[in-house]
Amino acid sequence: MPKTGGSALPIVKIYADGACSGNPGPGGWGAILRAPVAGTEKQLSGSEKNTTNNRMELMAVIGALEALKVPCLVEVVTDSRYVANAFRLDWIGKWQRNGWKTASGQPVKNIELWRRLLAAAEPHTIVWTWIRGHAGHPENGRADRLAVAARLRIVENS
Description:
Layout: E1 3-4, E2 7-8, E3 11-20, E4 25-35, E5 40-51, H1 53-67, E6 73-78, H2 81-88, H3 91-97, H4 111-121, E7 125-130, H5 138-156
Parallel strand pairs: 3-6, 6-7
Antiparallel strand pairs: 1-2, 3-4, 4-5
């Protein structure tokens, strides 16, 4: 396990999900942060009036990572291949080396969120885990319910 200043990094597990009604449309994101050694858990959520599902998937991870106050050893669990594969398959490294262009030469979508995610991830050691969505994973289900509730709140308040 990585060490900082002679002590082990705190371990945090993040479960993140996004939801959108229409694409684009009103969207929400939800995240659960669990520190098993400390025995703590925190739920976060947010929403946007006119967004996409991919943006909400990104915001769920960004919101969770930005909530961490110290460098941590993090496992991010997501049902978004878009987010997980950007790191697991090093799409993000390729995009950066190509001047934020995709393999087909197109500008990377959501570049401002990818940059924000990179900044939020920088102090941490992260393992990216993809899981199938809506497949009975309890924490993924909870993150999805947080995202849907956030989306519904923004619809009701519009």
